[in-house]
């Protein structure tokens, strides 16, 4: 038996607190996770970055006239998914990003989708994922066709978009807001939230860890295997950065954001 309890979820009425949505961005190094995240938060494209930093940003958004407190974890797995619980148990929705000019990055996005599907199966709890083919501005160098992207998304039942962190902000914003909508739909399906949960000790019978079964190196799940009071991984291994609203940024009323994830922003 496993029990689930936690704080009441924010309602959707006009008087209620904003809906809280955690969004994790996954994908191979260089796919453009940080560029898309920063584009969404600041409307700007970044050119310099530190690939080893993992940050979680916080932003107040309005989606379909509803206030949303959105946290975005720009993950930085090394070469393969690692210590995935930090985002698997935290996020309400996932953006899985590949770079359309890299077949390897597409293959890795498939591994991430598989990882999410396995986690959903093992925890009996699914979180929506959206598949993003990034670097649409580099379409002439594409190694992955749009049809392949759509087929992979179809296989895992997720939405699919081709985007570019260099091109229009509105498209990138639309994708992030779609993720919020997907998360909201999922939250509305379940009356109970997930910040805290207790699991009773119950070893999964004769199941090898996901790592060995699916070659997802070092990505282990403790779920249901130990008596534990788990707290949602606080924005834990990540630094929380509050970003001024993108509207303010665009109007340049806010002070110039000089250091965001070690990025140079222009
Ligand atoms: N042309 C083009 N370049 C992009 C786009 N998105 C990201 N890049 C570039 O691709 C490189 C990798 O982008 P990042 O955003 O750092 O990729 P990442 O997935 O966060 O990679 P890690 O930080 O290593 O995990 C950088 O040089 C970016 O400037 C895009 O849409 N178009």
Task: Give your account of this protein's structure.
- The protein is α/β, with parallel strands linked by helices.
- It has a domain at 19-190: Rossmann fold, CATH 3.40.50.300.
- Helix content is 29%, strand content 24%.
- The protein has seven helices and twelve strands.
- The strands form three sheets. A seven-stranded mixed β-sheet has the order 8-7-6-2-5-4-11, sandwiched between helices.
- The structure holds guanosine-5'-triphosphate.
- Guanosine-5'-triphosphate (GTP) binds next to helix 1.
Describe the structure in brief.
The protein has 266 residues and is α/β, with parallel strands linked by helices.
Terminal CA distance reads 52 Å
Give the CATH topology of the domain at 19-190: Rossmann fold
Structural class: alpha/beta
Strand order of the largest sheet: 8-7-6-2-5-4-11
User: Helical residue percent?
Assistant: 25-40%
In total, how many beta strands? 12
Kindly report the average pLDDT value: 75
Strand content: 15-25%
Overall radius of gyration: 18 Å
The ligands bound in this entry are: guanosine-5'-triphosphate
CATH superfamily of the domain at 19-190: P-loop containing nucleotide triphosphate hydrolases
The residue ranges in which pLDDT falls below 50 over 5 or more consecutive positions are 1-13, 197-218, 220-238, 244-260, 262-266
So how many helices? 7
Largest sheet: 7 strands, mixed
Listing every helix as H and every strand as E from the N terminus to the C terminus, the arrangement reads EEHEEEHEHEHEHEHEEHE
CATH class descriptor name of the domain at 19-190: Alpha Beta
């Amino acid at each position: 038996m496993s029990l689930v309890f936690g704080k009441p979820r924010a309602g959707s009425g006009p008087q209620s607190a904003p809906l809280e949505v955690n969004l994790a961005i996954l994908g191979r190094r260089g796919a453009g996770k940080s560029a898309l995240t920063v584009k969404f938060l600041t409307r700007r494209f970044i050119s310099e970055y530190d690939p080893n930093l993992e940050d979680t940003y916080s932003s107040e958004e309005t989606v379909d006239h509803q206030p949303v407190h959105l946290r975005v974890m720009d993950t930085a797995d090394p070469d393969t998914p690692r210590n995935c619980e930090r985002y698997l148990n935290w996020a309400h929705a996932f953006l899985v990003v590949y770079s359309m000019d890299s077949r390897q990055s597409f293959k890795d996005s498939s591994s991430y989708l598989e990882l999410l599907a396995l986690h959903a199966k093992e925890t009996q709890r699914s979180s929506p994922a959206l598949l993003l083919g990034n670097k649409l501005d580099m379409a002439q160098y594409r190694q992955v066709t749009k049809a392949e992207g759509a087929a992979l998304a179809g296989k895992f039942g997720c939405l699919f978009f081709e985007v570019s962190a260099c091109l229009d902000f509105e498209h990138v914003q639309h994708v992030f807001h779609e993720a919020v909508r997907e998360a909201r739909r999922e939250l509305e399906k379940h009356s109970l939230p997930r910040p805290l949960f207790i699991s009773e000790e119950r070893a999964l019978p004769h199941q090898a860890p996901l790592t060995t079964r699916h070659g997802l190196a070092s990505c282990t799940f403790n779920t249901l295997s130990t008596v534990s009071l788990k707290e949602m991984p606080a924005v834990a291994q990540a630094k929380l950065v509050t970003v001024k609203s993108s509207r303010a940024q665009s109007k340049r009323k806010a002070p110039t954001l000089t250091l965001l994830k070690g990025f140079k922003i222009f």
